[in-house]
Amino acid sequence: MKHRVTRAPRLELEQAGLRLAVGVVVLAVLLLRLISQSKPSAELSQMVWFLAGFVAFAVAITLWTLAGPQVSATRRILGIVADNATITWFMLHMGESGALVVGIYMFVAFGNAFRFGPSYLRISQGAALVGFAFVLFVSDFWSNHVSIGVGLFVALLILPLYVGLLMQRLNQARLDAEQALRECLKQKERLS
User: Fold this and answer.
1) Model confidence over 131-144: pLDDT tens digits?
2) CA 16, CA 54: separation in Å to the nearest integer?
3) What is the pTM of this model?
């Protein structure tokens, strides 16, 4: 098993592990709520089953990552879709409490950006915008709180773009520093 872990694409395995860990923790919390109630609501039961499916998906992606040592755009995109669909599903079912979850759209987008690059930031941001727009139109709560929803939508639109720009500048500064270091080392060799 250790051999598989060392051969797996580190960043994909990290993302898969995070997805699995968060899913397991949330599932555990929901299960505790479910078993602690004498008459749990049908909605809580649905949330538990939905999240159990998400955790099963997370296990499958993790095992796939361990089994296939090559980088996989398909795995990454499936993960982005699953993450954003899960956030969207919870926002649809949580009503006002869904406001606690909206920031996870950005967490997912930023995580994909820093691990996999700007293309995955845009894919994740697009999925978040589609998901949240769906929530704004379908959810009774969000349909009645359009101003708040539009403000959050604008944040989902602008913040990932800004982070992408900062990432580009940071990467360029790193490349410039590496080039300056190489030139400095060459100059030092010539003087020796």
Assistant:
1) 999 999 999 999 99
2) 12
3) 0.85
Q: Apex CA 85: angle with CA 5 and CA 136, to 5°?
A: 150
- 97: tokens are 């409490």
The tokens describing 87, both together, are: 């956030």
How do residues 85-129 score in pLDDT, each as one tens digit?
999 999 998 888 888 888 999 999 999 999 999 999 999 999 999
